[in-house]
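All the exercises in this workshop are built on plain-text protein records. Sequence and backbone structure share a record, each on its own labelled line. The structure tokens are whole numbers drawn from a learned vocabulary of backbone shapes. The record below serves as our worked example for the rest of this section.
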Amino acid sequence: MEYRQLGGSGFKVPVLSFGTGTFGGKGALFQAWGSTDVAEASKLVDICLEAGLTMFDTADIYSAGAAEEILGQAIKGRRDQVLISTKGTFRSGPGPNDVGSSRHYLTRAVEGSLRRLGVDYIDLYQLHGFDAVTPAEEVLGTLDDLVRAGKIRYIGCSNFSGWHLMKSLAVSEKYGLARYVAHQAYYSLVGRDYEWELMPLAIDQKVGAVVWSPLGWGRLTGKIRRGQPLPETSRLNSKESSDNGPQVSEEYLYDVVDAIDEVAKETGKTVPQVALNWLLQRPTVSSVIIGARNEEQLKQNLDAVGWNLTPDQVAKLDAASATAKAYPYWHQAGFKERNPFPV
């Protein structure tokens, strides 16, 4: 397993991380993802560690905290072998302070995650979304205190826009506070918006991308093709799951899958393996989060590493998945002399 530096930090993470959104299966959204219990989770962790995949990603809202609890039990007795990343910010209760990134909420959220995971510290703690109500100084000051207290090692964010991330980095710089070294962002062959502004920002500010839903919210599994019904186990069969995920037009999806199919035949790899390998060759990507409902899916996804697509194959996939950019990015693309695509 290859390891890469996480942003501008000295922290190294495996290029593949394991996502625990399938653990627990509580609620309509997460039931559509999976319902892995402790026994199966322990087997999946075993397979990951054997392959050199040591980072496990979760969040306090996944199955109402059950995902953290199951992960904690699955890694019990081997904390020194694993890296844990988790997230907080989204609503976790009915009260007015049960949401956001205030000092009040974040302190309680971190303590809750530590308790459910059964650990003394979190390797990477990420804000699940941007809180525009709480001052950035309060947010970063709280995270810095938690780092200094030894409860968090590194901090990151997730689903921020460019100005959200840049403002946060500026506050950290101004006051000498802990700095975001990771941005957990949606990025896939059928979702390339990350490249427009967040990728150039990440290169300039040395923020590593931790990619979520690299298979386009279950669309690049190799089981969804033109003229075929959705597989029975697809999360896209759940209206709540489908509505809460990225939207992709059918014809665009089919065109991209056709291109991936061509490359898959050339390489002898599967559609998911090609899609994951493409991401691993993109600028700023430190780690790609893979999920799995079962051991076979996990083993297949792990085979996305140890080889590389050729430049021609990457170019074929780039062309098939290209989309029209929003303003001002289409305008900036016409000034390539001073706004080159990130490499």
The longest strand covers residues 152-158. The chain has one domain: 11-332. Residues 11-332 form a domain with the TIM Barrel fold (CATH 3.20.20.100).
